[in-house]
Amino acid sequence: MELGFALMEPRPRKLLEQVSDLLRVKHYSYRTEQTYIQWIRRYILFHNKTHPKDMGSPEIEAFLTHLAVQEQVAASTQNQALSAILFLYREVLRQELDASIDAVRAKQPRYLPTVLTKEEVRAVISNLSGVYQLVVQVLYGSGVRLNEGLNIRIKDLDFAQQQIIVRTPKGVESRVTMLPASLNEPLREHLQRVRRLHQQDIAQGYGAVHLPYALARKYPNAERSWVWQFVFPSDRRCRDPRTSQINRYHLHESGVQKALKQAVFAARIQKRVGCHTFRHSFATHLLEAGYDIRTVQELLGHKDVKTTMIYTHVLNRGGKGVRSPLDS
């Protein structure tokens, strides 16, 4: 007796799944994917689960105004929500909005970064230990963002040229920054421990690491190769949320942030200090040393020199170089 099987039609992808699919096609980071989906979900729930295709500019304006007026979010947060919603309409729904978005905008404050003195930097670093101390030294010594520092791979360290290649920063464009000579030996010793950890993973049938884009398909053995491993790997393996493969990812940002908070408290620094503070301090101290602002701009990866100019406010020149009458 011959049995016939009806072909099952694939289940249509839900809207948020479509958003996720397209973000991955366009190589957005996993963090951006989660953030965009969160904002789109909030936008839909705000309008009582109305499908976005049945809404438009008025509904977007109402949601953004709610964020600014009722929730009093920062301007950057409101812009992030707008970017997510615009991605939904332009890239996923292919729906043109009938008018410009005219919502109440959150006020953009004039931002002045917190900068530590060199003595304060040394005090904080001296109260850190182990891998967290090394991570913060890289942040201050190279000017990289925390996420950039944790994403450094073995192949990105160039000891011969004393440089670090930052391959996946904001904006996706790679750049080169300095590798402090004082970190040569500490990093080499650290990498010996990382290699032993990687060899243990290989022996246990693991050792794979997440590769960007489609490199895992193009180079099947690359994910277990030494050069692609993270410089600061996590102490435990985890399941990749996109592929479900067991990988060893890099250190989680929260671990560095918690260790830094304790070190700042122990150093009795009376400033609001975060991981990004060391990037601010890196830029300011280079400018204090007389380096050209364009050079600092390139090391930081700023597209516009105006972004780098913000660090000139702490160059030990007081109020724009004017001497106070109290000091006369």
TrEMBL record:
Molecular function per GO: DNA binding
Gene3D superfamilies: 1.10.150.130, Intergrase catalytic core (1.10.443.10)
GO biological process entries: DNA integration; DNA recombination
Residues of the Tyr recombinase domain: 111-327
Superkingdom field: Bacteria
Keywords: DNA integration, DNA recombination, DNA-binding
Domain Core-binding (CB): from-to ranges: 10-93
Entry-linked InterPro entries: CB, DNA_brk_join_enz, Integrase-like_cat_sf, Integrase_catalytic, Integrase_integron-type, Integrase_recombinase_N, Integrase_SAM-like_N, Tyrosine_recombinase_XerCD
Family as reported in the entry's similarity comment: Belongs to the 'phage' integrase family.
Name of the protein described by the UniProt record: Putative transposase
Originating organism: Leptolyngbya boryana NIES-2135
